[in-house]
Amino acid sequence: MDRVDSVLLPELDGPVPATLPSTLGLLSLALGIGALVAPGPLARLTGVDDSAAARMVIPAVGLRELGSAAGLLSGRRPAGWAWSRVAGDAMDLTLLGRALADRSGERRHRLTLTTALIAGVTAVDVFAAVRIRRAQQARARMIRMNIGVTVNRSPAEAYRFWRDMENLPRFMAHLESVRADDLRRSHWIARGPAGHRVEWDAEIIDDQPNKSITWRSLPGARVPNAGRVRFVPAPGDRGTEVRVELRYAPPAGALGRAVAKLFGEEPEQQVRDDLRRFKQVLETGEVVRSEGSPNGISVRQQAMQRPAQPLPASRR
Amino acid sequence: MKATAWMGTDSVKVIDVPDPKIMNARDAIVRISTTAICGSDLHLYHGYIPAMRKGDILGHEFMGEVVEVGPQVRNLKPGDRVVVPFPISCGHCSSCQRGLYSVCENSNPNAGIAEKIMGHSPAGIFGYSHLLGGYAGGQAEYARVPFADVGPLKVPDDVRDDQAVMLADVFPTGYMGAEMCDIKPGQVIAVWGAGPVGLFAAASARLLGAERVIVIDRFPYRLRLAEEHLGAETINYEQADVLDTLNEMTAGRGPDACIDAVGLESHHGNTAMYAYDRAKQVARVETERPFALRQAILACRSGGVVSVVGAYGGFVDKFPMGAFMNRSLIMRTGQCHVQRYTRPLLERIQRGEIDPSFIVSHRMPLRDAPKGYKIFQKKQDDCTKVLLTV
Question: Is any Cβ of chain A less than 8 angstroms from the Cβ of B93?
Fold first, then answer.
């Protein structure tokens, strides 16, 4: 548990993406072995035992399933393999449809049942493929950062200020409010550009007084996030190294763009500025303001900030 | 209120702006009585410091009367007459607590921008670009002074405005330039630049016990001031080769310490040499013209100190690293940690050891600030220092 990556985010690390590919892989494995070992009984069961082609097609389908199984169980490109299962399902449904047209009586009955079963499997496969791909995309978008600041105060003072979660908006520019529901749970509201608001509930999952605080968003957050702040005595009696590890997965689409804007072009710069203000508040008692930066933590101003160059004339 | 505003390169205007307000609990509002134009204001005037915006209020040397204090300011009250150091310093970060006020870790609200250029951010400075905080300056009727419980120094009645206002920047800066030389009896100190900071560096080198002080400049009236007022020897670099002359004056040793009180807009006696760096500066291949710095390094005796108090903003080309390394030189630099020096220097003024008003050549009302900038820029009318009275 030394890295914040090991803090679970239910939406990203929960059972669905982690176990779905292997579950599908095992299903493919069973079907593949069945089709290769016992093509005859399978043909009877499905109602295509009267066709000579079935004796060729069923082992071929079995081989295809074994291919899918190998791919899914290998853990590489799970979304691709899940979609390949969907393609296989479509092929099976086509074949079954053609067979259905020629059958009647008891065989037709069994074929109908098989078709319904495969349609169900197809639905599960589509669902799984979509879930796996979304999780992969969220993981690819995931932003991770490790940023530190040295504060000329004791670890206990720094911890105490941070542990009162309602203090956080005093120095975090994008936060509108944090409401502590109890000692563990809190409700966060961030306000971004164009009236976009992002709200989520978070919980503290590890709390070591004067040492560290670890938190994560609760399931249902549209921007899953987790973080840890550690308060380490700085060498040479120089106060406290406040080290923040943070990760969050902005969604795609309009909300994702709003969240990206919320954190500016350089999310790390925003967090670094937040920590700088944390230092200001602890050391000087307030966020430092100037005529050029009158609000101290205005989101708009943060968004307009351009590193190392004056603003263009049009934005002065 | 009226204030001197930067309106673009080579352009300042006195305009009407809103009065400053208390924004933080440790702020004070000062009604300004006397303010000055600094040589480093000319870098802003010439457009060399990035992140200036049209309408920014200039000025970082000012003094006046406290008219309002925030709830956390307990050492000052309305009516106090104070001089305000140019670096804005919180007093509580570890830099401030070690006396390194000009690298205060908290006073630049735009520290992220400064970090991109400088690696770490220095302190915020009054009226000195958004890179250094976006604070309104003091060439105005009123100024907001953040962390007023740390910086401003109360000025006793027996010290005049034209003496006290020098404690905001130029006197402590020159003094720090000399202090960094670690002067010992018998030593020869050379100072590049006979502007206010160079003259105070030369004066301070004397106060700190230097045997000889040599001042290098190109304006005869400034060199005359160094000779007549400070008893310094002088070199006009447009008339003599500086390295040869210094070698001759020190019998081949070179000065024990060299103070660069010039900074990024230095000049060179040789037109071709000047044009080379000037062209690169215009093309932004380098941001500074470091003739004085290069010369100070080459001139300094082996094992000596190069003390840099001239203002630099960015990057220097052709830094003589070989000379610097092979000859065991020491370089010491810094924006002045003014808060460290105000009280001891005030006491030297009160004891009559120095009257810093000797550098003042021009006094004019605030509304004439644009004229003041022009005169100072062009070195017209033997201008060394312009005071603006409000």
Answer: yes
Closest-approach residue (CA) in chain B for A281: B106
Kindly determine whether residue B25 and residue A286, on different chains, have CB atoms separated by under 8 Å.
yes
The Cα B307–Cα B191 span in angstroms is 9
- Give yes or no for a contact between B382 and B361, defined as CB atoms under 8 angstroms apart: yes
Contacts of B52 in chain A (CB under 8 A): 310
- The Cα–Cα gap between A156 and A71 comes to 52
In this predicted complex, what is the ipTM? 0.90
The per-residue pLDDT for range B92-138, each reduced to its tens digit, is 999 999 999 999 999 999 998 899 889 999 999 999 999 999 999 99
Total-model pTM: 0.83
d(CA B143, CA B53): 18
Q: Is A152 on the interface with B (CB under 8 A)?
A: yes
What type of residue is A10? Answer: P
Confidence of residue A51 (pLDDT cuts 50, 70, 90): confident
Nearest-neighbour CA in chain A from B106: distance (Å):
6
- Of the two residues A301 and A176, the one the predictor is more confident about is A176
* CA A56 – CA A221 distance, rounded (Å): 50
Tokens of residue B367, six digits: 């509304």
Q: How many CB atoms lie within 10 A of CB A73?
A: 17
Q: Do B146 and A238 touch (CB under 8 A)?
A: no
Exposed/middle/buried for A166, CB within 10 Å: 0-12, 13-18, 19+? exposed
Q: What percent of chain B has pLDDT over 90?
A: 89
- Band (pLDDT 50/70/90 cuts) for residue B327 is very high
Q: Where are the beta strands (DSSP E) in B202-358?
A: 212-217, 233-236, 257-260, 305-308, 330-333
CA gap A309, B11 in Å, rounded: 20
Q: Contact at 8 Å (CB) between A175 and A169?
A: yes
Q: Which residues of B touch A289 (CB under 8 A)?
A: 23-24, 109, 146
Q: To the nearest whole angstrom, how far is the Cα of A238 from the nearest Cα of chain B?
A: 7
